[in-house]
Amino acid sequence: TQSVASKKIVWWLNLAEEIPESQYTLVNDRVSKVTLFNLKATKPRGSFFYNALYCCH
User: Fold this and answer.
1) Residue 41: CA atoms inside 13 Å, Cβ hemisphere, count?
2) How do residues 2-44 score in pLDDT, each as one tens digit?
3) What is d(CA 16, CA 31) in angstroms, rounded to the nearest whole number?
4) CA R_g for the chain
5) Which among 41, 1, 20 is positioned nearest to 11, based on CA atoms?
6) Would you say the C-alpha torsion 45, 48, 52, 54 has a positive or negative sign?
7) Which alpha helices (H) appear in the chain, and where do they start and end?
8) Would residue 23 be called left, alpha or beta, if left means φ above 0 and alpha means ψ between -120 and 50 degrees?
9) 54 with 12: CB under 8 angstroms?
10) Cβ contacts of 45 within 8 Å, gap of 6 or more
11) When comparing pLDDT for 50 and 22, which is higher?
12) Distance between CA atoms of 6 and 47, rounded to whole angstroms?
């Protein structure tokens, strides 16, 4: 397993919506903080009843 620096990570919501860089900040080399606006946690998205936040390299 190899670690990836947080500055190389891109964040996605439900693998469909890329989170703009303006909504996440680097806490340190291994940690990012993501802020999600207008998130409706109880509204179903297709067959899913939750939202998932993904980090991609």
Assistant:
1) 3
2) 888 888 899 999 888 999 999 999 999 888 999 998 877 666 6
3) 22
4) 13
5) 20
6) negative
7) none
8) alpha
9) yes
10) 14, 51
11) 22
12) 31
Query: And the tokens for 22?
Result: 């303006």
The residue type found at 15 is L
State both tokens at 33: 């903080």
- What is the per-residue burial (b if ≥16 Cβ within 10 Å, else e) of 3-37? eeebeebebebeeeeebeeeebeeeeeeeeeeeee
Tokens of 24: 């996440």
Residue type, 22: S
User: Residue written as tokens 């980090």?
Assistant: 55
